[in-house]
Design the sequence.
């Protein structure tokens, strides 16, 4: 398969290296010079002209910040399958529908707290869910192409509906970031005494801040609703502890 990945950061670079290891022909468009040099050193083709790299590809993968993805979907003309790796689906599905793109939303449930080439990891997708949502103009060949890619990555593809995806992700990831940040704030100044529990709780709160802001931009209403529910739960916990009602606290914890 002839694949172009736009973006050579943690996700794009990891995908490029893994897909290259599956004997696919892989090219990456990335503006950062050092990243390009590192990719070329590993056998990945790069180029300065996106239009030139777009020519004759079986699939184009968008692995860029969501605000950049929005501009790309609005401006570029695609003649092939297009997929992304964004943690929000609905806004980009709307653009794809309006432009009649053969687009498949793709969200790998994988990641780490590192940005750019520091986050490259060819094993990061292994045995992780890869959530997919084909747009109305994506045909069966497009879907099969994307599933072949997820299989090469070692992921488990699963078809979801965009609105359900965005609500679910606000609850299991995007709002949890702020709870993780709260743990970082509470532990500030005491880091030398922390154990593995604190490390695992705060890992999500250390992820790429640009991506977090994009999540709020494109999925803010769902995140707000999730945070309201978290606030309500924590308020109940606080009030039970303040009043010394340990029986009520047990009920809240077990609920």
Sequence:
């Amino acid at each position: 398969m002839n694949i172009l990945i736009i973006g050579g950061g943690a996700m794009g670079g990891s995908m490029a290296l893994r897909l290259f290891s599956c004997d696919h022909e892989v090219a990456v468009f990335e503006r950062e010079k050092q990243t390009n040099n590192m990719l070329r050193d590993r056998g990945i083709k790069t180029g300065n002209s996106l239009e030139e790299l777009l020519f004759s590809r079986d699939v184009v993968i968008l692995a860029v910040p969501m605000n950049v993805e929005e501009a790309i979907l609005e401006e570029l003309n695609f003649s092939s399958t297009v997929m992304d790796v964004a943690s929000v689906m609905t806004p980009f599905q709307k653009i794809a529908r309006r432009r009649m793109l053969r687009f498949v939303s793709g969200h790998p449930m994988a990641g780490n707290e590192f940005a750019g080439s520091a986050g490259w990891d060819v094993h990061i997708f292994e045995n992780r869910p890869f959530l997919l949502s084909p747009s109305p103009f994506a045909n069966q060949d497009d879907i099969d192409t994307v599933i072949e890619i997820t299989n090469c990555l070692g992921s488990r593809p699963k078809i979801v509906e965009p609105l359900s995806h965005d609500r679910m992700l606000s609850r299991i990831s995007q709002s949890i970031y702020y709870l993780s940040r709260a743990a970082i704030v509470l532990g500030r100044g005491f880091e030398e005494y922390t154990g593995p529990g604190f490390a695992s709780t705060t890992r999500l709160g250390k992820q790429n801040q640009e991506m977090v802001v994009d999540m709020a931009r494109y999925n803010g209403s769902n995140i707000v609703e999730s945070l309201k529910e978290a606030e309500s739960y924590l308020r109940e916990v606080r009030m039970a502890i303040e009043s010394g009602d340990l029986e009520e606290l047990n009920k809240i914890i077990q609920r």
Q: What stands out?
A: The longest strand covers residues 103-108.
